Amino acid sequence: MSPGGDIQTTFGEHFDSAVDGGYIENSGALGLAALMRSVKASLPDDQWEKLRSRLIVVFIANDPSEPVRSAKELCSTSGAIDPHPRKLWGEAVTPAIGLFNARSGRADTSRRALARDLGFCDIYRKAQPQAAGNANSAGNAKSEQEKMPPQMFFISMSAPMVQETNPVMSWYMTPHAREVMWRAVATEPASSELLRLIHKLSPDQDDQSRSGLQAYGAVSAP
């Protein structure tokens, strides 16, 4: 849990204290959705549609217990289901666990609301019949891209090595935990979404990107 920060006036007097936004919602989607609503309200419809067609949203989930693994899963499921067995925490600990789970649940709801407001999942669903037709051609790389939400990417750090290590995700991480998380970037499920994102931004860099991730996963993190 990150420590709070002191906010001072220009005269050096205490004004307020602030904590990490993850205390309330740990994905950033809630704030981004509010920003997008404000931008949409300030633009004519045609300008908003032009802007929306160029938007790319990247979610990064560093919680090993995050049940959603990709943007496709985010659009294909109605809600995140925690795959881990429930525990009897006891009366003393249950309120804190409830607050923590409410934060994660709010993150999942906010991501889905943002995707719905921007119409990203609708675009993905409409593309499925065409993607299914293209899939009849063996080895069709384009059809694989069409099976994914084209403007939304979900980078999940839930690789097996992270699940096994279960690093403490606080304001300080041990060197070993940092190395495990860096290696997870080059491992599934993160690597597929990263390669898809790179393809979206630079279609001619696919081979170099794949080789770079493979090399990155084979060495120690900086």
Protein topology:
Blueprint: E1 5-8, E2 14-18, H1 29-42, H2 45-52, E3 57-61, H3 71-76, H4 94-118, H5 120-134, H6 141-146, E4 152-156, H7 160-165, H8 175-185, H9 190-201, H10 206-217
Helix pairs in contact: 1-4, 9-10
The topology string of helices and strands comes to: EEHHEHHHHEHHHH
Q: List unreliable stretches of 5+ residues.
A: none
Kindly report the spatial arrangement of strands forming the biggest sheet: 1-2
What percentage of the residues does DSSP assign to strands (E)?
5-15%
Compute the CA-based radius of gyration.
Answer: 20 Å
Mean pLDDT: 77
Helix content, binned percent: 40-55%
Largest sheet: 2 strands, antiparallel
The span between the termini is 24 Å
Structural account:
- With 222 residues, this protein is mainly alpha-helical.
- Helix content is 52%, strand content 9%.
- The protein contains ten helices and four strands, in the order ββααβααααβαααα.
- The chain has helices spanning 29-42, 45-52, 71-76, 94-118, 120-134, 141-146, 160-165, 175-185, 190-201, 206-217, and strands at 5-8, 14-18, 57-61, 152-156.
- Strands 1-2 form a two-stranded antiparallel sheet.
- A hairpin with a 5-residue loop joins β1 (5-8) and β2 (14-18).
- The two termini are 24 Å apart.
- The model has no long low-confidence stretch (mean pLDDT 77).
List keywords for this structure.
10 helices, mainly alpha, single chain, 222 residues, 9% strand, two-stranded parallel ribbon, 52% helix
